[in-house]
């Protein structure tokens, strides 16, 4: 009896692209209605002195296990306060007319947290403030910024990226409209300058076409070799491929490669299917090999914090006998869009082969 080989690809992440460990938090007002929403990634680089009089730098990110105790919502001013491990990160918002902005970010960190600051010479709590460039956000829209924004204060570096944030939420419902940061908006070419004519006569010249700069393209994704086997058991899956992920939102398109050199592999073996889980610095992907070859995505859309009602599925049939290897002669590409969404996902496997054992 033949066994069929194929897979389902499941993307998991906190934010649309540059998949990483986004933190999602909400704050309700006195009437228990949503007033602040945020989904963001924050990385910190904090220098400190060690007990042996040497210097070190603690690098860490905002963890997923946080609270919002101490946050406030008022008609003209609000504060999102995120607490984690004895540290706090907060942002103050003010509303003026039909626009709001983030006035100041305050980061307090405790050197007594030896897991983050090993061998620190002090147990003091330090506080630094940052001036973010989150301005002119239209009321009842969600501020979006996928680009990295690094701010420095007193030698402490803070990097925000993959930010979705809305303050002064009306009627307890997040907006479906977006105000994008400047870094996410493509630069436009200024219109040509028109000069007044003069009486000077110049010799005719042969028109030349200015050189064009090609659009940068990603290199071919590196080929990774992955094995799934139970502990003290025999391997049930062998896979070898390069992987590229693309995301189109409206007219904007972004893509990235899975870096096989920084990717760890795990998984599990089943009777009718086997799973391969790949985790890198920027994404987490699960591939399930079963009797249908398809791609599923559960990444959020650009709507502020709203998930698609169901993950899209794009199927491509493929079959093989036990222990056989499929080596496509051309890249396998899956493209699909969640129903009612402007977001389009694409996944491409290059030089792919896999074996179910």
TrEMBL record:
Give GO terms for biological process.
Answer: autophagosome maturation; cellular response to starvation; protein targeting to lysosome involved in chaperone-mediated autophagy
The record gives the membrane topology as: Single-pass type I membrane protein
Q: Where is the Lysosome-associated membrane glycoprotein 2-like luminal domain?
A: 30-169, 222-291
Question: Where does the record locate the signal sequence feature?
Answer: 1-22
PROSITE patterns registered for this protein in UniProt: LAMP_3 (PS51407)
Tell me the segments the record calls region Disordered: 184-221, 303-332
Q: Which Pfam families match?
A: Lamp2-like_luminal
InterPro entries, per database record: Lamp2-like_luminal, Lysosome-assoc_membr_glycop
Q: Which UniProt keywords apply?
A: Disulfide bond, Endosome, Glycoprotein, Lysosome, Membrane, Signal, Transmembrane, Transmembrane helix
Q: Which cysteines are joined by disulfide bonds?
A: 145-181
Biased composition regions of type Low complexity, renumbered to the chain: 195-206, 318-331
According to UniProt, the name of this protein is LOW QUALITY PROTEIN: lysosome-associated membrane glycoprotein 2
